Amino acid sequence: MKKCIVIGGGFAGLTSAVYLTKAGYNVELIEASSKLGGRAYSFLDKNTGTVIDNGQHILMGCYEETLKFIKLIKAEDNFHFQKRLEVNFLASNFKILPLKSFPVFYPLNLLLGLLNYKAITFFERLKLLKFILTLPFFSKKKLDHMNVAELLENGNQNENIRKAFWEIIAVGALNANIKNASAKIFADVLRKIFFKGNSSSTIVLPLYGLSESYCNHAQKFIEENNGRIFFSEPVLSLQIENEKVSEIITSKRTITDFDFVVIAVPLFAIEKISPDIITDKFHLKYSSILSTHIWLNENPLDKTFYGLIDSEVHWIFNHGTHITIVISHANELAEKSNEAIFEIIMSEIEKFTKIKKELVIRYKIIKEKRATFIPSGDIIKLRPPARTKLRNVFLAGEWTDTGLPSTIESAVKSGHTAAEIIIGQSY
Ligand SMILES: Cc1cc2nc3c(=O)[nH]c(=O)nc-3n(C[C@H](O)[C@H](O)[C@H](O)COP(=O)(O)OP(=O)(O)OC[C@H]3O[C@@H](n4cnc5c(N)ncnc54)[C@H](O)[C@@H]3O)c2cc1C
């Protein structure tokens, strides 16, 4: 039986390990930290006894690879799948402006939903629709040289449409300023959302903490298929001989008996373990996500989540006893003190909701400074494929060349690709 070492237990490494154990490989997954999940995990907040995520994660119906993975590890029941797209946007006058797909057949359901989105005028809705419908006809060459702001400008999307629709969607999907993000990657995401059937545009949310929702199920799957997971064991370096990795040196041992290695760690971690594996050197710029969990005496919200129009706060997720405030591309804000951030958040959400500072029992701010990489036009061209110059080493991780932004779907797709290449190469 061929043996694979998977380095890293985030979505990418877990996916590789799941598919490799399913195919009968002897898999050892080695994780530096004491838990699985990488950038998507949950933990117990001891002060409140609540399980919270390091950051709210949103999946979409177009996350084909992720949904397949969740099904394979039997974690589907831990997620809520919208039947039809429904996002409640909030304006600063307390108004709820729903974007809701109609209960008719696809694609009429989405067209009617967009035509009924009252945050913009009817004329602007027609412009929005026209832009979406012409997306498949934008030339790849043109997109390659544009950023998202230029794409929207080119498509006649005025400031009102940008603020009430595009900025929320683009910042949510890309976690970047629209001037820094590639039009190509955004157009590809939009095509997946709007042109791949009814369920593609729907939102999928974990029902429980992320670790319970998927990490535990992935671990169970791997172990039931005779894989082993080693925690708190960072890989320190790799020994390379004759175009192959011959030794893996971890903080606890040296591993020499393996056939294949999947490296599923972030780019900055690879640079420490074995910088030469990436042939064409490049650096990623990262973008922060701030998640603020706020426990309330009384919660006036009744929807599961809200998108905020023209606000520094992007999303509010309602978990009943507490809410989670998500602020994307928050590099500047992340430099401020927690107290200052909390003040900004409260003054913002008081404008949009009936939540008042007096209702707050406690808050906890989590700053993920390297949440995602910024998908700028020049960077996405440099993302490496799964195959490396070393014959027994494959790369996975959301930053590799998946064609997708820095998301769970990209991580899962990369992990599956690496596993499939190994499986294909073994015969
Ligand atoms: C706050 C936040 C919110 C987000 N929201 C969303 C969202 O709503 N939707 C979405 O699709 N995506 C979202 N993302 C992005 C998503 O979480 C990531 O794209 C995805 O989790 C990356 O998975 P990965 O396996 O590629 O990398 P990682 O999750 O970074 O996993 C890498 C693993 O490798 C381990 N490792 C590192 N070095 C070593 C070493 N030397 N030896 C052994 N192990 C090592 C790490 O400990 C880690 O477990 C969000 C990210 C954050 C931080």
Major sheet details: 7 strands, mixed
Into which percent range does the helicity of residues fall? 25-40%
Which quaternary structure do these chains form?
single chain
Gross CATH architecture of the largest domain: 3-Layer(bba) Sandwich
Which band does the percent of strand residues land in?
Answer: 15-25%
Main sheet: strand order: 8-7-16-17-18-15-19
Number of domains: 3
Helices, by number, come to 14
List the helices and strands and how they pair.
Blueprint: E1 3-7, H1 11-22, E2 26-30, E3 42-45, E4 50-53, E5 59-60, H2 64-72, E6 79-81, E7 86-90, E8 96-100, H3 108-115, H4 122-134, H5 140-144, H6 148-154, H7 159-174, H8 183-194, E9 203-206, H9 210-224, E10 228-230, E11 235-241, E12 244-250, E13 254-255, E14 260-263, H10 267-273, E15 286-296, E16 305-308, E17 315-318, E18 322-327, H11 331-334, H12 338-352, E19 360-373, H13 377-380, E20 393-395, H14 408-425
Parallel strand pairs: 1-2, 1-14, 2-10, 7-16, 14-20
Antiparallel strand pairs: 3-4, 5-9, 6-9, 7-8, 11-12, 12-13, 15-18, 15-19, 16-17, 17-18
Helix pairs in contact: 1-9, 1-14, 2-14
Describe this structure in words.
This protein is of the alpha/beta class. The protein has three domains: 164 residues, FAD/NAD(P)-binding domain (3-Layer(bba) Sandwich), CATH 3.50.50; 95 residues; 88 residues, Polyamine Oxidase, Chain A, domain 2, CATH 3.90.660.10. It has 14 helices and 20 strands. The protein has a seven-stranded mixed beta sheet with strand order 8-7-16-17-18-15-19. A five-stranded parallel beta sheet has the order 10-2-1-14-20, covered by helices on one side. The protein is globular and about 65 Å long. The mean pLDDT is 96. The chain binds flavin-adenine dinucleotide. Flavin-adenine dinucleotide binds next to α1, α10, β15, β19 and α14.
